[in-house]
């Protein structure tokens, strides 16, 4: 009878274990007990991970001896990728130490540079001594015959290593999800790069276009044919999802403007980098060192007015600005020195919109003020000047002598001025209740829901050239500074065309606690002694109590 009960219990145990395994195999859940839910993947990231049907090999170059901040970045990267693997076993991860074989660090760094992956040099403070280490904060993901590079470290002007790591951890999920998105999904959306109205040359927007090609189909488009066959021009333009207008300098005809208007009415999206003032730094490089900033009329005023904005023909003079680089000397003795230049404002971000969340300051040159007007279109000011701004009317004489003059602080009282405004909603045609330049079938006076980004400086998208080759957008070769222009524009395009909701991951905020390095150095010996003595003391107390109660137990029995 007793043996029968044992068999019964054993059978129940076996059946229970089988049921538990079946449930575990079919029902999957993970608990995230962190306050900021840093290990809870967004729905957009999960959807991308679930679509990985073949092995993806991710090589992460964050293995080795690092400063504490970068060990935290490595650990957070490892834990995030473990979450990825938990949702899809096709994701394989390798952590690699590029310096494991004892090779020359500078030679390895040069190899990474040639592959387009810039190493990071970080200062290490330990026991009161400071040294410099090279870190390779990159990952490479391979999927079939496709490869993408994934940056893991975000640089921020003036940020400490702790701040850089905190910003980087906040963007880890977006960085890897974005990399997988480029690997596994074919390109679908089409972008028209506008030509024919004096836009920036191809060489000056080459870096950004090359980056866009990883996501979208890109083709040049001219409105010249609008003079002879505007209906066909509009039909061809409507085949694109977004138009990119990079600093036009020639006025638009009414036919061209109506084509743009009807493209918007049909739900087409636009990024317009346009200026109402003509001024270039190159114009100052003459014997007098002076030039005039003059109003520029592109014949777009009524178009933008009907959509709810106005770009004013004024210049933004901002104390928070990027320097101008001027040469001194000649021949081999030539030096390039930075000087304050208040017509190159560095943007501030008045909100945490996904486009601008956690990006570096965007550099403008001779930017104009944007007014927002009351209508039903939702307007979001993405970038603005600093509170220490002065608005200057045009015509205006500008001289290089300003670099040696102290600014009159009492005149910088105009406050923050909008420099980039996002418009979202249903737009009203600029030709509503007006005579149309030409007749088309199904002319629309109210748009379907769409988006438009207006930036009051075309140079935001302009990359410099070195020996005829384009440099990275936002990179200043003489100071080594990289501004946030490229990331800002790429985020804007992704926001407008992203069907996967991937850009929303950028709003995720993660708080990373760090040890105070000064206090750690001062109290190092105290905590070392405490870590050695306290465990031994606890062990001694436990041994004493164990012997005490054991002796007492056996004395009572005796």
UniProtKB/TrEMBL annotation:
Q: Name one Pfam family in it.
A: ABC_transp_aux
Record's keyword annotation contains Transmembrane: yes
Q: What is the superkingdom listed in this entry's lineage?
A: Bacteria
Which segments does the entry list as coiled coil?
none
Any transmembrane segments, and where?
529-549
Q: Domain DUF7088 spans what residues?
A: 35-141
Ranges of residues in domain ABC-type uncharacterised transport system: 189-492
Alphabetical keyword list: Membrane, Transmembrane, Transmembrane helix
Q: Which NCBIfam families match?
A: GldG (TIGR03521)
Full protein name: Gliding motility-associated ABC transporter substrate-binding protein GldG
What organism is the protein native to? Answer: Autumnicola psychrophila
């Amino acid at each position: 009878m007793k043996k029968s009960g044992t068999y019964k219990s054993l059978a129940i145990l076996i059946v229970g274990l089988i049921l538990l395994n079946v449930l575990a195999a079919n029902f999957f859940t993970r608990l995230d007990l962190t306050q900021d839910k840093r290990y809870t993947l967004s729905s957009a990231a999960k959807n991308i991970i679930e679509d990985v049907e073949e092995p993806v090999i991710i090589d992460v170059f964050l293995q080795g001896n690092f400063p504490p901040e970068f060990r935290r970045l490595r650990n957070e990267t490892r834990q995030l990728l473990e979450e990825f693997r938990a949702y899809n076993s096709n994701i394989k991860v390798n952590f690699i130490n590029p310096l494991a074989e004892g090779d020359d660090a500078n030679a390895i760094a040069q190899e990474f540079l040639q592959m387009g992956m810039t190493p990071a040099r970080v200062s290490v403070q330990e026991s009161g001594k400071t040294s410099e280490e090279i870190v390779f904060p990159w990952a490479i993901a391979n999927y079939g015959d496709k490869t993408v590079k994934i940056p893991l470290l975000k640089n921020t002007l003036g940020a400490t290593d702790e701040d850089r790591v905190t910003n980087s951890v906040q963007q880890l999920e977006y960085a890897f999800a974005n990399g997988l998105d480029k690997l596994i999904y074919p390109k679908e959306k089409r972008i028209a790069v506008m030509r024919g109205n004096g836009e920036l040359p191809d060489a000056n927007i080459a870096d950004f276009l090359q980056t866009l090609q990883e996501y979208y189909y890109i083709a040049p488009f001219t409105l010249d044919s609008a003079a002879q066959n505007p209906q066909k021009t509009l039909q061809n333009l409507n085949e694109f999802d977004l138009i990119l207008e990079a600093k036009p300098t020639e006025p638009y005809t009414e036919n061209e403007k109506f084509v743009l208007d009807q493209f918007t009415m049909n739900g087409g999206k636009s990024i317009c980098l346009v200026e109402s003032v003509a001024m270039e730094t190159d114009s100052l490089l003459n014997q007098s060192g002076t030039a005039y900033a003059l109003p520029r009329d592109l014949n777009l005023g009524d178009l933008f007015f009907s959509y709810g904005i106005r770009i004013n023909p004024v210049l933004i003079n901002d104390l928070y600005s990027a320097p101008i680089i001027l040469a001194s000397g000649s021949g081999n003795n030539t030096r390039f020195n930075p000087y304050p230049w208040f017509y190159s404002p560095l943007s501030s971000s008045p909100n945490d919109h996904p486009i601008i969340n956690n990006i570096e300051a965007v550099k403008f040159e001779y930017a104009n003020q944007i007014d927002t007007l009351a209508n039903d279109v939702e307007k979001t000011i993405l970038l603005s000047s600093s509170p220490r701004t002065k608005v200057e009317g045009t015509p205006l004489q500008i001289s290089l002598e300003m670099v040696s003059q102290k600014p009159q602080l009492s005149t910088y009282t105009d406050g923050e001025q909008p420099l980039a405004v996002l418009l979202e909603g249903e737009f009203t045609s600029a030709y509503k209740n007006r005579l149309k330049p030409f007749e088309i079938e199904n002319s629309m006076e109210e748009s379907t829901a769409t988006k438009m980004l207006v930036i009051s400086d075309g140079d935001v998208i302009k990359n410099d050239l070195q020996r005829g080759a384009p440099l990275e957008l936002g990179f200043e070769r003489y100071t080594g500074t990289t501004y946030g222009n490229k990331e800002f524009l790429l985020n804007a395009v992704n926001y407008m065309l992203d069907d996967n909701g991937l850009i929303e991951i950028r709003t995720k905020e993660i708080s990373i606690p760090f040890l105070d390095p000064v206090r750690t150095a001062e109290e190092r010996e105290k905590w070392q002694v405490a870590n050695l003595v306290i465990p031994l003391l606890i062990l001694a107390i436990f041994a004493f109590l164990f012997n005490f109660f054991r002796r007492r137990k056996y004395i009572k029995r005796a």
